[in-house]
Structures are given as structure tokens and as C-alpha cells.
Amino acid sequence: MVVKNVMNMNPGDGATSYANNSGLQKAVISETLPLVDETLKAMFSAANGRFHAKCLKLVDLGCSSGPNTLFIISYILNAIEDLCSNRINSANDHHLPEFEVFLNDLPDNDFDNLFKLLLNSNLFNGKKTRHCFLYGLPGSFYCRLFPSNTLHFAYSSYSLHWLSQVPEGMESRNQENICIARTSPPEVFEAYAKQYQRDFSTFLSLRGEEMIAGGRMVLTFRGRSVEDPSCTDDSAHLTLLSQTLLDMVAEALGFEVCNEWVTLVVIHQGEYGNEWVTLVVIHQGEYGVIVEHVKKEDLYSFNIPLYPPCEQEVKTVIENEGSFHLDKLHGFRVRWDAHDNVVDDEDNPILKKHRSGKLVADCVRAFMEPMLAAHFGSSIVDELFGREPYDRMSPLGGCGNTCPHKWTPSTIGGRKLIDFSRNS
Amino acid sequence: MVVKNVMNMNPGDGATSYANNSGLQKAVISETLPLVDETLKAMFSAANGRFHAKCLKLVDLGCSSGPNTLFIISYILNAIEDLCSNRINSANDHHLPEFEVFLNDLPDNDFDNLFKLLLNSNLFNGKKTRHCFLYGLPGSFYCRLFPSNTLHFAYSSYSLHWLSQVPEGMESRNQENICIARTSPPEVFEAYAKQYQRDFSTFLSLRGEEMIAGGRMVLTFRGRSVEDPSCTDDSAHLTLLSQTLLDMVAEALGFEVCNEWVTLVVIHQGEYGNEWVTLVVIHQGEYGVIVEHVKKEDLYSFNIPLYPPCEQEVKTVIENEGSFHLDKLHGFRVRWDAHDNVVDDEDNPILKKHRSGKLVADCVRAFMEPMLAAHFGSSIVDELFGREPYDRMSPLGGCGNTCPHKWTPSTIGGRKLIDFSRNS
């Protein structure tokens, strides 16, 4: 299966990088930790003889590149070591297992940055010196990633809402929407839903081949809070983005009238010696001020391969595919500015709203910029995010009735967290 | 063990990148192929039941980033598949094995470029669709890289002459030499030799823990053609480099006399209104022309962690360490311009010599630039390689008796190729 889209996060460790703008994703990971604990406990308890393997193989699917990757891997390793230490104390088992940890993402992911972070991390040292081997695994999780029956535990956070591709034939049918939105026509909902079913089913089937019997996965991804996608806009931040792009189209349309390439002919009649000559100075230039603009056809052909499924869709695919038992399915809400922990301007709602809106915009830019730049050209990105009135991006809302995109926590997308284990 | 030096090759795929200047390394790999075939045949022959594993784990240690990495991995996979196909035809074994291929280098290696090359390669498709899983393995091969008893085959080409660090206490003792050279004092030879013994012994011991019984390694690295390092200069290209640096020191010393920072005081006596005033315009600048130069103390403190061992040293470490049997040890010569395959100026020896010298200089730059830039600053690199009279770098020699570095094939370093298997 070919993953056709540019889907990496903003690389590096600069101001607009994913590494520095993934506080929301960190907040989501933190919410999942109790379930990670519970799952690992069930796997590695003293009573479960199946996981007395000398070497455990773990993977973070769609790990991206930044401190979150190190955080969750470190958390999982510590948790397993604690569980195994308890077992060692209560049985004749004297050795902690060795760990093979695979960090998976698409080949365009910033692995170089990730490897440098690893080098400076303490992942190799647990309570004792740890035999932990870390590998980069470039490839789509919609393809096989491991040999058969070798994987013990898979974790994936905030990646599985990315499809392998935009459903085929979407060109222009979704108009100015960039993914499914309230105003998308029914056939667009249907095409996205079918693509999701195919992709998630493929994912389960492949992991089913790779995991040992009894292996488990904890998967977290953006979800839809209701079944009917036309009833809610869980991706309101992306709707706002598409509307800003539409604003830029409208401005460009108005502008293009005076943006024709013209040839200016400057004619100067002068005297040279005693002959009258006519000098023609020709300069090919642009009339009007140059601004970056977005073409309507570019916006209409831009769709991103993102699909937040509802609970029932997730359940149905898991049951139909059949490789895994569903242990838990739990949806929860996370505010887009959940990582806003500045308190000093608590009494200044305007400042706070602006800052929380900026956090959301930075977060959206960190995961959308490579896709936007590949489609529209990198020159529009600064303006797109620079012109965004951040207040509108804030989940604190408060921009009044005139604004159709009043964001309140109740309209921020629900996320699904699933823990399920392979049928043994 | 901390690997203390900058030791990555030039990244990317530009004009000075390792990826585009590794023809010599390709020539070396090509020389080793018959021995790779022979080794794999011994491992995977129908008679050898030990390697009927469902999944084979292979590693390229010090793989760097470029087409050579893909070439050798592809060659090894095809060879194993052929051998296994023969076995399948002659036995009740119906399945080709799955492959886990690990690409190892230091974390600063250009893995991003390597992963992009992989994506466009045909490594995933052999004669049938191949189950081949490729992983990046950032880390020093002087540390543990794999869990115990899991590795089947290790290959390493042109990496093991790099030590884990410059021997301690080398500061100024090696004077203008940048690694062991004819004029190095005996204590420098000794310190480098001891560091090599420690490092290679560590390497063997670690791989011994990681490999399954019967696993094999094919290792190729730069070697020394004679035991006494003061009798020959197998690293004449690096001697030439250190002499060019010394030239730059000498020029800088001459230059520094007139390169003092001076304060220029420009005094202009003029009339302002009816009063006489004295205007003093002060400009702090540099007197003389700014050129990049090399400080003597920087050159004297620059040593690279490279050691080409002689055959006896290699044998001794392998025997003393004891984890592996030595199957074959074979030294051979490769001309530094072995990859010069342009024939159209065959009749023009001057052109040919210049081109072959340029090839050598480009090759040296590809592996030396990051180290040079980290120590002297990146600004000297263009001048260092730009001023090099390429003819002197050519193994065709011919620069007459006045040149002390007449390179002929007989003085180009011997390389060792070893094939040995783990004691079972």
C-alpha cells in the first residue's frame, strides 16, 4: 500500500517545530497512562507465564520526533521493569528482560533529530543499567513492519486518525473543506468512512501477523463524539483553517484583476547630439503589490487524509477483522489548550484567550505545515498562520455571536483510547 | 564507552557529500563479494541445519549513508535467497526466511537521507515479494547494539579502522601529524596500537554476546601493509592533508605579524561655522587582508581516531579475545582512484592525473570534513581542499623527485578483509 501524502510533522527543534509544539499530544499521552499501567500489569503479572521472554519487543507506531516519544517509551520501560522486578522477587526468575524498542514513523519523519534526542536521554539506564536497544523504523504502519509472531506490545498515540491516503475521487467534491466537515456532502463522508474501514482493518490484520499470541496494543487517536458527522464539527480548528484559506482565495480573486503581468513601456524623447532619437526603455514587471495568494482550484483540490472515527465504527472494524479482542474503548475530551499552564495572567481573559489561541494555532501549524507547503507552496504558510486571529482559535471562545466558530470545550473533538489484545 | 569524536561522513547528497564521493569504498566492497558469497554459502548450505531460522537478523555496522549501503544489503539478501531457494528445492522446507536488516552507524550519521534512499530502493522485492524489514540503528559498535544471542550475520566495510576515541594524552605529542605517520614518535604508535587492541577486543566481545552460535561476520577495514608503522606511510593522503594544514599554519604565522587588530584614527581638521573644530572619526577594523588561517596549537592538538592495523595485530586480538574463530584473513591493495573509470582522456596523462587526484581529494573531504570543521571551524575547509594541488593526491604520482609524496600504487595502504565465525 502506497502512502501517497506528505504527512510528516514540522521537523527540527525550531520555534514552529513539532518537537516544540506538541504540548497537546503530551496532555493526551498523560491521560492514557493509567490504562497503559493496567494493560502492562495484565501482561506482565507474576501469574502470566507467557511474558517471561528474555527479550521484549515494543513499538511506538507513528512516534514522530520530539520529547513525547522519549517520555512514553521511558514510562513504558520503567513500568515493565517494575512489574518484572516484582515477579523476580516472588519467583525463581532472576533476570530483567532485554528490550528492543522500535520507533516507527514515515520515512520523512525527522529521525535524525529523534536519534540525537535519544543519545542525550536516560533511556538506557533504568533503576539498574538497562539492556535497551533502540531502533528507527521508517515505514507506514499500513504495511508490514515486523517479522511474524515477534512483537509483544504496540503503542500508538495520535497517529491512527491519519489514513493511508485521501479517498480517491475527492477532487473538488469537498469544495473548500480540507477534510470531513459539517458542510461536506454525504458522498465525501462515505468515501472517508470507507477508506478508514479499509485502513484500520489492514492495520489490525498486519499487526495480527506480527504480534505474538497474547500481545497487546494501546491505541489513542482523534475521534468523533457522535455518529452522524454532519451533526458536529469535531475538527473545528481545521474548519477555521480552511475558512482562512478561503479568505485568501477571495482576496486573491479580487487582486488578480490588477495582478496581470504587464509590460511597461517607458518612452523618453530626448536629444542626442543634434539628432532627435526615441529611446524605449522596456521593463517587464508586475503591476500592483505582490502578496502571496491561494488559488481557488488549489483549495478545492486540497484534502487531508484525516478521519476521526466514532466509537461504533472502531468497534465494528475490530470485530469484523477478528485478529484482536477489544479490552477497553474509552472516549474523552482534551481541550486544545490543555497544555496552557501559564497562570500569571489568569485575571486577564483577553490575554489568556489570545495565548491559548496562539497555542492551538502553533499546534495546528506543527502538523499541517508540511502538507500545506507541499500543496500551496511554502510561501503562504507564514501569512496563513500570521493572519489568523488567534482569539478565534482559542477554545475559550468569546468572540461573540458574529463569529460562527465560537470554540467552547463542548465542541472540541473527542478522542478515543483503545486497549485491546490479540486473540490467542 | 563514550565515542568522543565527531566521526560522521559528509551528509546529504550534494557535491561534497559522502553519498556522492564513496566510489573508493564501492570498489573495496566489490573486492569482498566473492568472500561474502563463500561465507554465506557455508552458513546457508542445505547441509547446515542451524540456519533454518524463520527470521534472519543481519546488520551493516558503520553503514554510513549512500548507495553503497543499499548495494551491499541488496547483494547479501539476494545471495541468501538464492541459497535458501536451492535448499527449498532439495528439502521439505517451503518458505523463504523473513529478514530483519539493521543499518548501524553513529547517531550523527545522515539516517534521514538513508531512509529516503531505502524508500526508493527495490530492497523489499527480491525474486518473489520479500518480507524484509529495515531498521536504523543509531549507536557506536563499541557498545551493545542487540539483545543476546539474536544476530545471524554482521557485515562491516571500511569502518573498523575508526577507533572509539583518540588515545588519551595525545595533545601535542604527535606534533603536526593528524594520525600515526612515519614521523610519529614511538609513544604515539604505542598509544594508538593499545587503543586499537582495546577497541577491537571490545567489539568482538560485544558481538560475541549478540550473535547466535555459528553466526558469522565479514569485516573489511583499512590495514597496514607492514608491522613497523615507521617503515611505511600507508596513510600518505592524510600525511599530505596534515602538511597542507602545516602550510596554512606557516602562512598564518607570517600573516599574523600584520594581522594585529589596530584602531585606525582618521583625523580631519575642518571649519564649522567660524570655529575651528577637530573631528575624530574612529573605526575599529582589521589591517591587512582577511584570510582563513590555521593556528599552530589547533593543528598540534588535532588527532583523528584512525588506526590501520597490521595482520598480526588483528590475529592476536581475535585469538586473545576468544569469542570467534578466524576463518580467513586476506590483505589486498586498492588504488585510491580505483573508481576512476573515465577513459576518454587516457592519452592525456596530465588530465588523468589531475582527475584522479581530485577523486582522492573529494573522497578524503567526504570523510574528513565534519572532523576538520568541528576542530578548525568550517571556514577553512573550502580553502584546504581548494588549495590542494590535486596532482600530488593522485596515486599516478609523477610530480618528480622534488615532491616527497610521490604516490604510486605500491605505497597505497593495504586493507584487511576478514571473515570469521563465532565459536560455537
TrEMBL record, chains A, B:
Keywords: Methyltransferase, Transferase. It comes from the Eukaryota. SUPFAM superfamilies: S-adenosyl-L-methionine-dependent methyltransferases. Transmembrane segments: none annotated. One of its GO terms (biological process) is methylation. Pfam families: Methyltransf_7. GO terms for molecular function: methyltransferase activity. The keyword Transferase applies. InterPro entries: MeTrfase_7, SAM-dependent_MTases_sf. Belongs to the methyltransferase superfamily. Type-7 methyltransferase family. This is Benzoate carboxyl methyltransferase. It comes from Sesamum calycinum.
